[in-house]
Amino acid sequence: MVFSSHLFIFYYLPLVLGLYYALPARRYRTGLLAIASYAFYGWANPPWALIMFASTIVDYACGIVLLRQAGLRRRPDGEWPAIAPEAPRTPAMRAVLIASISANLLLLGFFKYYNFTEEGLNRVAAALGGPAWVPVLNVVLPVGISFYTFQSMSYCIDVYRGHAPPMTNLFDFCCFEALFPQLVAGPIVRYGDIAEQMRHRTHTPDKFARGIAFFAIGLAKKVLIANPMGHLADAAFGAHARDAIDAWAGLFAYAFQIYFDFSGYSDMAVGLGLMLGFLFIRNFDAPYRAESITDFWRRWHISLSTWLRDYLYLPLGGNRKGPARTYVNLMVVMLLGGLWHGASWTFVVWGAIHGAMLTVERARGKRSFYGRLPRPARVAATFLVVCLAWVFFRAATFGQAAAYFASLVGLGPESAGAAPLVAAVMYTRFHVLVLGVAAMIVWAGPLSWDFTRNLTPTRAAACMALLVVAILIMWTQTENPFLYFQF
C-alpha cells in the first residue's frame, strides 16, 4: 500500500483516523496505531510484518535487559527511569547494546545484501574454475527495511546513552517501530526524538489542519511533478541512443524526480504524523539551493545524514583525532551511506563521490573549491556535481553509467532515427511545462514547512485545490511506489 493510492486515501486513512479519535485514551490510541501500522506494512506481503515484529521483540527485550544490567527498577508509576548519562557503563551493558546492533545489522545484511554477496563470491568462484561458494536463495528485500532497522537501532543506543527513558509497554514500542506514516521510506525517526511524544502528545485543530496541508503538498509533489519527471528520465536513461541535450534533460528530470518523490513522501509522512499528534523532523531543506556539497548534506535527507553523523561518524572519532582521521571517517561514512541505499557498486561510487567532495571541502575549511564564485554560480556548480553523481545512483551498471556520461558530452552511440524518437517522447508540452515548474519550485518556490506554518485561508484553499487535482490525476496514472521503497 502506498500513500498515492485510492485504497489508502479513501479507505485506510479515514478508517484509521476515525477509530483513532473515537478511542478515549492514549494507550488505546497507541495500540490501535500499532495494529494499523502492522496491517499497513503487511498488506502486500504478511511475512514482512512478522520479520519486523521479530526485530521489534529483540530490541524491546535488549532494552529491558540493558536497564536491569544498569541496576534500575521500575518506578511506582510503572515507568522505567532513564540511565544517567554520567553513570558508568558496564561490560554487560555494552554486550547487550552490541547484541541489539548486531541483530539489526544481521537482519539488514541478510535481506539486503545476501544476493549481492552471493553473486560476487560465486562470480569469483566461477573465474577460478570451482563450484559456487554460496547457495543461491533469491532473497526478496522487505520494503522499508533500511529505514526501520536504523530506527530500531536508535532505541537501544539512545537508552544506553541516557538520551531518553525506555518504553514500558510493548504496544508503545511496536507503535514506535512500525508507525505507518514514516515506516517504509522515512524520515528516520530516532527514539530520543519521539520518546516523549509516545507518552504525551497533543491533538489540536490547527495541528490537524497543518497535517492535511502537508499531505496535500506532498501528494501534489509526487503525482503532479515526480511521476511526469520519472517518465522523462526513464525515456532518457532507457534509450539506446540519445544526444547530449536529451541526456542532460533526462538527468535534470531524474534530479527533480528523486527530490520531489522523496520530499513529497516526507511531506505526506509529516502531515500524517501531525494528524495523529506527532511532530517529525524536517527531512529536506531546499537541497538544490546548496552552495557546496557540505551544505547539500545539511539539507538533503536530513534524518539520514544526522543519523550517520551521530551513530557512525562521531563514534568513529569524528574530527577529534586529527585531519587525516577526519577524512578517513568522512569517506567511511559516505561509502557505507552509499551502500545503505542499495546493494550495488554503483551506489558505493555515488557515496565515494560525495565522500571525496566532503573531504576536499573539509580540508578547505568547509568551503568548496568554487567558493569564491557568486552565489548563483556556487548553487549551479553544486547542482551540477550532485546531478553527475546521480548518474551512478540511477544506472544499474557501470556500463550504463559510462554510456550515459558519453551521451552527456555528445559521444553516445549512433543509431539512425533513435534520437528523434527519444526526443518525441520526452519533449511533449506537458513534460516541458512540468520540467519548468519543477525548476521554479526548486530554486524559487516556498518550502512546505514555511508555507504551512501560517496557514491562512488562502493557503488552505490552495492546498485543498492541490489535493483535489492530485487525486484526480492520480486516477489516470498507474500505481507506482516511491523511489526510496527500493533502497
Structural class: mainly alpha
For the record, give the distance between the C-alpha atoms at the N and C termini, rounded to a whole number.
17 Å
Let me know the number of strands. 0
Name the beta content range.
under 5%
Count of discrete alpha- or pi-helical segments spanning 4 or more residues: 19
Number of domains: 2
Q: Could you tell me the mean pLDDT? A: 88
Runs with pLDDT <50, length 5+?
Answer: none
Q: Biggest β-sheet: count, sense, barrel? A: none
Order of helices and strands: HHHHHHHHHHHHHHHHHHH
Rg for CA atoms = 24 Å
Oligomer: single chain
Estimated helix fraction:
55-70%
Shape: globular
Structural description of this entry:
This protein has helices at 6-22, 26-42, 46-69, 91-127, 145-161, 170-178, 191-199, 205-238, 244-275, 293-299, 302-313, 323-341, 345-363, 375-394, 398-408, 418-426, 429-444, 448-453, 457-474. Helices cover 68% and strands 0% of the residues. The radius of gyration is 24 Å and the shape is globular. The longest helix has 37 residues, at 91-127. The chain has two domains: 6-201, no CATH class; 206-291 and 368-486, no CATH class.
